[in-house]
Each structure stands twice: as C-alpha cells, then as structure tokens.
Amino acid sequence: SMIFSSNLSDISDSEIIVEAVFERLDIKKDIFSKISDYLSETAILSSNTSSISISHLSSFVKIPENFIGMHFFNPPPLMKLIEIVKGNRTSKETLDKIYDISKKLGKEPVIVNDYPGFVSNRVVMPMLREAIVALEQGVATAEDIDKTMKLGFNHPMGPLTLCDFIGNDVVMDIMEVLYTEFGNPNYKTPILLRNMVYAGKLGRKTGEGFYKY
Questions:
Q1: Same domain assignment for residues 74 and 140
Q2: Among 12, 21, 52, 157, which residue carries the largest CB count within 10 Å?
Q3: Is residue 3 part of a domain?
C-alpha cells in the first residue's frame, strides 16, 4: 500500500529512500540535511538527480557509503532505463542492492561513474540546445525541427517536444549545471530558452512551451 505523509519521521523505517525534488543543489542539500536524522544506519538514500554530482551530494548526508544516484526516466512507468550512479564513497553493497532492486522493478539498469550529466543528459543536452538555437535563428519552425529528428533519425519524439515534456525550467537547470561544470558552450543556455522560462512557458505542465497544449 502507498502512504502519503508530510511528516519526515515517517521515513524512519524505510530501507530505501529516493529523493526527487527540483534539480537545484540548494534544495537537495536542505532535504538531505533534514532527513538524515531520521534514517537508520543501514538505510540507502538515493537521488533522482539527472545532472548534479553524486559525490558532491553525498557530502550533505551522514553515511555517504549508503548514498547513490538512481536516475529514472520520464514517464517512469513506461521508460525501462535507470542510470545507477556511483559516488566516490558509494559502497559496493549499496551498488549491488540498488542494481538488484532496479531489476526487480522491471528496469534495465546501467552503471555510470560520477560525471556531471552522467551519460544521458551529457549526450542529449547539446542536441536539445542546438534545436532551440536553430529555432531562435529562424532556421526552421519548431514543427519542422522536430519532424526532421523524428523522420530523419527515427527519434520517437522531437527535441523541442521533449523539452516541453521534461519541463523547460528543468532543461535550463540541467544546462546550467553542465555549463558550470564543463565550461563547454555546447551546454550554455540559449537566450530563447531562458526567456521562455522567465515568462512561465515551461511546457506541458503550464500549458505552453515551444507548443501550446
């Protein structure tokens, strides 16, 4: 059965906790500092972060050996992939347990070392950025940019549709993390994306992004 609660002490008997708040270091740090007092010494604490260093996040928890990354993909009930991210202090026991649990959940886990963006977002963010810049420069319409990638490269979803699905604010947060870590202009947030986020055009969740819903 599923129980909803706003009382942090209710997690005291939990064996595995998955944090899934906004992709911002300050918010995650606050969450970890609050829940650490309620966790048992054997509980595994994981983060669903898609870009922030697991080793960095582990510095905010009491037992970093029990801390690991579990990056689920949206929508989780349909997407089978899960990135399991090892921090520099993650124990082998923690890694093995999370791998086994991921398989029991019907997922296909991949084990990733701790680099910003891991595999998925490190590879996909430059593509999303270029699609946004192409739109910004008037190379083609949003519809035709997406159509090109769907029909030309057999992608199930165009990059601008994907941005709207992820949430344009989340895409911007991930790009900011990667640009800060790597200094690579391929991760620099386009002006168009930044202005859309400031205007509240976050995608499906607000009814408007690169498309209207």
A1: no
A2: 52
A3: no
Query: What CATH number does the domain containing 200 carry?
Result: 1.10.1040.10
Task: Please state, in angstroms and rounded to a whole number, the distance separating the CA atoms of residues 109 and 119.
Answer: 12
Residue from 71, 122, 129, 201 carrying the catalytic annotation: 71
| pLDDT computed for residue 1 by the predictor | 58
Boundary of a domain, candidates 113, 145, 164? 113
71 catalytic, yes or no?
Answer: yes
CA distance 173 to 58: 20
Are 171 and 198 in the same domain?
Answer: yes
Strands 44-47 and 67-72: parallel
**Measured distance CA(54)–CA(71) in Å, rounded:** 11
Mapping DSSP to helix (H, G, I), strand (E, B) and coil, where does residue 98 land? helix
- What's the pLDDT tens digit per position in 29-42? 999 988 888 999 99
109 and 141 housed in the same domain: no
**In terms of domains, do 179 and 102 share one?**
no
Name the strands in the sheet holding 108-113, side by side, starting at the edge strand that comes first in the sequence: 16-19, 44-47, 67-72, 81-86, 108-113
